[in-house]
Specification:
By secondary structure, the protein is an alpha/beta fold. 34% of the residues lie in helices and 22% in strands. The protein contains 16 helices and 18 strands. Strands 2, 3, 4, 5, 6, 7, 12, 16, 17 and 18 form a 10-stranded mixed β-sheet that branches. Helix 5 crosses helix 6, helix 12 runs antiparallel to helix 13 and helix 13 crosses helix 14. The radius of gyration is 22 Å and the shape is globular. The chain binds S-adenosyl-L-homocysteine.
Length: 438
């Protein structure tokens, strides 16, 4: 690892809030213009008045990814000037260690002659850039391997920023808004890179998939247990204030109730059918063509209740106020992801971020960078970044790593399909155990 990456990349200052931080909805800080009737609010009012209250999932989907007014579609929400900060934006070490994870998995699974790196929700492209730097540094190991990059991104604005971060300026980007591959180019290290809006449009080759803080933005349905059974939480216009929204309970059962476990004991649950669809697609692909998926997010194992929340300018934000101006998110239920994999693949984790990064050698990497960092301010920044990623009170315990791998990868080609076995971390998978170069 010491020889892997030599550059020390300056990152912006580290604001103090990350999205995994709090989990209460409703009573957050509100932006100065919080009472503003945003174009999204007008759109939702119109919709609700004409066809009735909408589910929280529909609300999230509209607010975040509506092609005309969605929060993700036109904002650059990441970093100091945005609404929240993520691990790759905090420290280069994060992406580098993930790059090492992919190379280690590529080696362990037999050094295929080609692979696709597919990132879901790549933000500013920082994570893929850090991973590609590792791939370049490990050029002698990967030289016979044909690599391509595939980014799944709904945001026009962010895809432009990703292209700026990742592609070679001298090679013009090919754009075709009507095509399933809406943009194509060549990375700074000469690798083909393509953009898609949907995972199912990515070619089905041998692939390594990455989703960092992606599953938490997928729409959730919320349910409350009542004396009459489960009732879905809906978003309605507030009769007391015609330019405000409020939560109500559906008067009768609604279809998404099918996603709640029969033996569910919680009083309030959030279910995310879109996450299930994506996990099924990933599992199917990995089972049939090989590769792996690494998913990192804040979440729980089917224990938490009300985690739906908003962020605006690094502050908690009321989810129903000024929709379209703030990020919306809900904790990922890893037990649900595991169920949706349906034993087609082995699932590892979730393990806490600090355990995963420690196993990947974060301490050694930090030391190398500290030794190389000339300026005291650079050293300080590296240490602050490390603290943010690893401190149990910060991101160290709230964020988790979860992986999908072909069964053969863990059980040496046996036909073992026992889900309980696949829950046991294999000694040979880096991050979930200590990294050992093979
Ligand atoms: N992974 C990045 C960014 C996380 S923010 C990081 O860790 O820094 C969530 C990302 O997912 C953004 O890039 C957003 O535009 C994208 N996104 C949100 N909903 C999406 C969807 N339904 N399909 C594809 N991308 C989506």
């Amino acid at each position: 690892m010491n020889a892997v990456v030599r550059r020390c990349v300056a990152r912006a200052g580290i604001p103090c809030i990350w999205r995994g931080k709090c989990f209460s909805s409703g009573s957050g800080n509100e932006p100065a213009e919080s009472n503003r009737v945003t174009p999204m609010l007008r759109h939702l009012m119109y919709k609700i008045k004409s066809t009735g209250p909408i589910t929280v999932a529909e609300y999230m989907k509209e607010v975040l990814t509506n092609p005309a007014k969605g929060y993700y579609v036109h904002h650059d929400m990441l970093g100091e000037k945005g609404d929240f900060i993520t691990s790759p934006e905090i420290s280069q070490i994060f992406g580098e260690l993930l790059g090492v994870w992919f190379v280690s998995e590529w080696i362990a699974s037999g050094k295929s002659t080609a692979f696709q790196l597919v990132e879901l929700g790549p933000g500013r492209g920082t994570l893929t850039a850090d991973i590609l730097r590792v791939f370049s540094q490990l050029g002698s190991v990967l030289k016979a391997c044909d690599i391509s990059i595939h980014l799944v991104e709904v945001s026009q604005r962010l895809s432009e920023i990703q292209a700026l971060t990742l592609t070679e300026e001298k090679v013009p980007l090919e754009r075709d808004a009507e095509s399933l591959v809406y943009m194509k180019g060549i990375t700074k290290s000469g690798i083909p890179i393509s953009w898609y809006r949907d995972l199912k449009d990515v070619p089905k080759g041998y692939s390594f998939y990455l989703a960092h803080e992606f599953f938490d933005v997928l729409p959730v349905h919320k349910f409350q247990k009542t004396p009459h059974g489960w009732r879905e939480v809906l978003v309605d216009v507030d009769p007391q204030a015609s330019d405000k929204l409020r939560f109500v309970l559906a008067p009768c059962a609604t279809p998404a109730e099918a996603f709640i476990q029969r033996d569910e004991r919680r009083e309030h649950v959030e279910v995310c059918p879109d996450a299930g669809v994506i996990i099924q697609e990933l599992s199917q692909r990995i089972a049939s063509t090989g590769g792996a998926a690494l998913i990192a997010d804040y979440g729980h194992n089917g224990t938490k209740t009300d985690t739906f929340r908003g962020f605006y300018g690094h502050q908690l934000h009321d989810v129903l106020i000024a929709p379209g101006t703030a990020d919306l998110t809900a904790d990922v239920d890893f037990s649900y992801l595991r169920r949706m994999a349906q034993e087609k693949v082995a699932c590892l984790g979730p393990v806490e971020q600090r355990t995963f990064l420690k196993n990947m050698g974060i301490d050694v990497r930090l030391k190398v960078l500290l030794d190389k960092a000339g300026e005291p301010s650079m050293k300080q920044q590296l240490l602050r970044g490390y603290d943010m990623l690893m401190n149990p009170q910060k991101m160290g315990e709230r964020f988790n790593f979860f992986a999908l791998l072909p069964h053969q990868r863990l059980h040496g080609g046996s036909q073992e399909r026992n889900a309980r076995q696949s829950k046991t971390p294999s000694s040979s998978v880096a991050g979930f155990n200590e990294l050992i170069w093979q």
